[in-house]
Amino acid sequence: MAATLLGASFVVFGAMYLAPGSPASFLLSGRSASPAALQAINDQYHLDDPFLVRYLRWLGQVLQGDFGRSITYRTDVSTLLADRLPATLTLVAMALLVVVVLGLALGWIGAVRGGATDTAILLSTTLAVGTPSFVAAVLLQGLFAVGLGWFPTSGTGDGLLDLLWHLTLPAIALALYLIGMLARVTRSAMLEALDGEHVAVARSRGVPEREVIRRHVFRNSLGTVLTTGGLIVSTLLVCTILVESAFSIGGIGQLLELSTTTKDFPTVQAISLLIVALFMTVNLVVDLLHPLVDPRVALGTRRSGA
Description:
- This protein is mainly α and about 300 residues long.
- It is built from 15 helices and no strands.
- It has helices spanning about 1-20, 25-30, 35-45, 50-65, 75-115, 115-130, 135-145, 160-165, 170-195, 195-205, 210-225, 230-245, 250-260, 265-295, 295-305.
- The two termini are about 25 Å apart.
- It is a multi-pass membrane protein.
- Its main location: membrane.
- It is found in: Cell membrane.
């Protein structure tokens, strides 16, 4: 993880300098400036230093918890992240809860019941997978917020309950695509487990069908489902940028969009590196949990090592 983060930090830092324009042009806002004024800006933000020198200076500050000072907001990037990160994490947590509950439930029902129920679930999940998050955000906002007036159209409100109320529609819009994906993965994994010999043996021994499904089918499918967890969380982190913009939520997603537009290098670099770190942490947790959910993974590793 340390080596990957180091490589990611180099890519994140260098990518902004490949884009056209510069922080100095934004700070000047199109106004002409004397060479002395332009030089003062370059000296303040070390824009004239060699690329490697700027990168090593930035990396040393990041390791100390200092992400620099925002060019747009004229404040520390760490302060901006601390103010906006709670809203984004709450939105992602709400969406993840909806994805896990509905995705697993629909996949379970479709695999177990089959027939018309399974067909209906397949059609609905296909529609969900084919609906991008920003399209779902516009449709939900137009119907339930503007049309019916059941939910707020934008913002995060005041207080925890008001925050949850404001984030309900964004969470659903963010989760819709992933609900369909997780449901289809769960259904396929359970159907494959249903054909296993251990299921036939359990049924021949008179084990109740509910126990067969819970202990021998669903539990054996969790390994495949858990592997999808990293992809789900990474998709949530990326798509929250679009959803936050649609609902005007003051989170890091909207901050990233605004900072990219204004060439706010320190803010974009900090948010990008934070997203990479969160993604890597989630994948690490998934890798650590996988052997606990499916002991065959650990046994296979030991045998290959032996």
